[in-house]
Amino acid sequence: MIPFRSNLNCMKNNFIVVDDEPLARRLITSHASRVESLELVGECATAIEAANLLRTKSIDLIFLDIQMPELSGLDFIRTLKNRPAIILITAHRDFALEAFELDVLDYLLKPVSFDRFLKSVNKYFDNATGPPAKSHATTGHHDFIYVKADKKDHKVNLDEILFIESLDDYVKVILKDKTLITRENISTLEQKLPDDKFVRIHRSFLVALKQIQTISAEGVEIRGKELPFGRAFKKSAIAQIYKSVQKDS
Predict the structure, then answer these.
(1) Where does a domain end: 136, 162, 192?
(2) Are residues 122 and 239 in the same domain?
(3) Total domain count for the chain?
(4) Which residues form the domain of 61?
(5) E strand or H helix at 137, and its extent?
(6) Peptide bond preceding 132 in cis form (omega within 30 of 0)
């Protein structure tokens, strides 16, 4: 089992998996079985089953599919008043903006790797216990990523990235000395990057925390370029930026 740095590893955190695909549920429960602080309470094939379970059990965390019969995962979230933490799991990227507007904890694309699962679970523990120290060993991140551009995989050092901008049909990775144009989705690139070094401030902008020169109510500035906050990202982005400043001071 994977131990955790927070003091939550001495208590169990009850979770359920809600997905109409048995194989998808099995994958998540398998990943979770490697985390000693997580306790499986039940598996549900529909949101209706999950709603019934929530009435009788104390649940801390839900791994929730979006596209399900009878009631979608997003509509299910809207029915909840005192809801647990929610990590969405889906095969589709198109619901990301709507999902984050509902203040979900994370948005995972199927099939979910254990590294990506672990990053989400760490985010859950971070929210529950306050900001812990992160390490590359824990998150699985390196000091570089590979970006597909010009039919090649370009090795990009994290320190070279200023910000990433999503446009209609492509994404621009703005480096200190050049720009790479890629067809990779900005959310896919976000999953490759450590969230103690990068922050999503808008559905179209992902920025390097150390490259931010000024911050205002409207957005941030990097190398004279003003980048706006998106409504769905503003609160969490500002909190992450100032947490980074405190850490470095």
Answers:
(1) 136
(2) no
(3) 2
(4) 7-136
(5) helix 136-139
(6) no
Indicate whether this model's pTM tops 0.85: no
What pLDDT, in 10s, does the model give residues 147-181?
Answer: 989 888 899 999 999 999 999 789 999 999 999 99
Report the b/e string of 13-41 with b at 16+ CB within 10 A: bbbbbbbbeeebbebbbebbeebebbeeb
What pLDDT is stored for residue 134 in this prediction? 38
For the record, the structure tokens of 45 come out as: 């094939």
Question: Minimal CA–CA distance to 206: which of 155, 162, 143?
Answer: 162
- Cα distance between residue 149 and residue 50, in whole Å: 43
The rounded distance, in Å, linking the Cα atoms of 17 and 73 is 12
CA–CA gap between residue 107 and residue 95 (Å, rounded):
9
Q: So what's the pLDDT on residue 142?
A: 65
| Length of the chain, in residues | 249
